[in-house]
Each structure stands twice: as C-alpha cells, then as structure tokens.
C-alpha cells in the first residue's frame, strides 16, 4: 500500500555495498600505520635492548630506580646495585632504559 520508490531502487546494488566498506578499510589501514605498527616496532626495540643488558650497564627500572647491573641471572632476573652495598633483584622486562653501556672486556688469547 505505502511502498516507496526507495525500496525498489535498493535491490541489486552489489557495487554500492562494496563502496560503503571502503571508508572502513581505509580507517583500519590508517590506524595500522599510525598506531599498531609503530608500537610493534617500539616493543621489538625494547626487547632487543633488554636482552643486550650485561654486567656494568647503568639502567633505569620502570619504577624509577637507577643503578648499575652487578649480576645477570639466567631466569630473567638482574641484580642491580642502587647504592653502595645495596643490591636489589629486578626482572629483566622491568628495565625501561639503559643509561650507559659498558664496553665488552677484551679477550686475551
């Protein structure tokens, strides 16, 4: 009875359905390149930095403690000296920054 011409025009619009998804695809692509990809790159760099920590490096923990690494343990822990004679155990992944790196010792052979 009250059929409008809009219902008749909507049938058979397969190409129109695809074009309505194009803005969503573009938004996802922009979000990927502006947010997701840089975050993954930053995470990868942090992981490499934490794996390269060795004895003698001066580090900053995520809690804000600054100290020198005195011992590197195998189970993901580091022993960090934060003052003379004061040593704390911290997890590797809590290191937020390496302030100064030490040079590896020369091997005499």
Characterize the overall form.
Answer: rod-shaped
Main β sheet profile: 5 strands, antiparallel
Give the amount of beta strand, in percent.
Answer: 25-35%
Distance between the termini: 98 Å
Number of strands: 5
Order of neighbouring strands in the sheet with most strands: 4-3-2-1-5
Q: How would you classify the helix and strand content by structural class?
A: alpha+beta
Could you spell the SSE succession in H and E letters? HHEEEEE
Determine the fraction of residues in helical runs and give it as a percent range. Answer: 40-55%
Specify Rg, calculated over alpha carbons. Answer: 28 Å
Task: Report the uncertain regions.
Answer: none
Mean pLDDT: 85
Verbal overview:
Helices cover 40% and strands 28% of the residues. It is of the alpha+beta class and 109 residues long. A hairpin with a 4-residue loop joins strand 1 and strand 2 (66-72). The longest helix has 38 residues, at 14-51. The N and C termini lie far apart (98 Å).
Give the key terms.
109 residues; alpha+beta; 2 helices; 5 strands; 40% helix; transmembrane helix; protein transport; membrane
SSE order and pairing:
Blueprint: H1 5-10, H2 14-51, E1 58-61, E2 66-72, E3 77-83, E4 86-91, E5 95-100
Antiparallel strand pairs: 1-2, 1-5, 2-3, 3-4
């Amino acid at each position: 009875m009250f059929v409008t011409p809009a219902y008749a025009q909507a049938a058979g619009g397969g190409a129109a359905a695809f074009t309505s998804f194009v803005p969503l695809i573009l938004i996802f692509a922009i979000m990927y390149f502006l947010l997701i990809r840089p975050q993954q790159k930053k995470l990868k760099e942090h992981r490499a930095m934490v794996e390269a920590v060795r004895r003698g490096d001066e580090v900053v923990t995520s809690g804000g403690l600054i100290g020198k690494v005195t011992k590197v343990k195998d189970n993901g822990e580091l022993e960090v000296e934060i003052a003379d004679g004061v040593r704390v155990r911290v997890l590797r992944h809590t290191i937020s920054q390496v302030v100064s790196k030490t040079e590896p010792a020369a091997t005499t052979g």
